[in-house]
Design brief:
Elements: E1 8-11, H1 17-25, H2 29-36, H3 42-45, H4 48-55, E2 62-70, E3 77-87, E4 93-100, H5 109-123, E5 128-134, H6 138-146, E6 150-153, E7 159-165
Parallel strand pairs: 4-5
Antiparallel strand pairs: 1-2, 2-3, 3-4, 5-7, 6-7
């Protein structure tokens, strides 16, 4: 990260489920709202059925990357961020999303996850990446604009879509 904190970015694994529960415990209501477009309670976000779908990723359809940090004092692992690229059926396109723990936002972690997912999309020969976000989520809009995404308004006045042609 820009502050020198060392993290490992890697594909999610089945055994990450407990770490994902801990990760979701670090998210503020505002962060959850900006990512999911609604208040999604902790119990629902960490339900076993949901996390199994996320942690047992089918790489033919999606790529889920996690940013992992090992505490040098305790040796404990923590997930600080998650990024996902879901392939869409049409147009060799994919949908992109990223979620960073509140304490680690604005340190370059989300940008690096996004860069890696964009590279995955290029490696997979996809033609386009889209991301939908709330209009008031200016931080992610700024980051995506720096990465070359262009924006368009959606029919819903609260949402905007970012598009990157590859």
């Amino acid at each position: 990260m820009v502050d020198g904190t060392q993290v490992t970015i890697r594909p999610i694994r089945a055994e990450d489920e407990p770490l994902m529960v801990e990760f979701h415990e670090t998210l503020s209501d505002r962060t959850v709202y900006l990512r999911y477009f609604s208040s999604l309670g902790l119990a629902r976000r960490t339900a076993h059925e949901r996390l199994v779908r996320i942690c047992f990723s089918d790489y033919e359809r999606e790529m889920v990357l996690v940013a992992e940090y090992r505490d040098p004092h305790t040796g404990e692992l923590h997930i600080l961020g998650v990024g996902r690229l879901n392939k869409l059926q049409a147009d060799k396109a994919a949908e992109l999303a990223v979620l960073i723990s509140d304490h680690y936002q604005h340190r370059g972690l989300g940008t690096e996850l996004l860069r890696r997912l964009i590279q995955v999309a290029r490696d997979e020969k996809l033609s386009r990446i889209v991301a939908e976000m709330l209009r008031d989520n200016l931080a992610i809009q700024t980051t995506l604009r720096r990465l070359g995404f262009r924006f368009r308004l959606l029919g819903d006045p609260t949402s905007v879509q970012a598009v990157l042609d590859l």
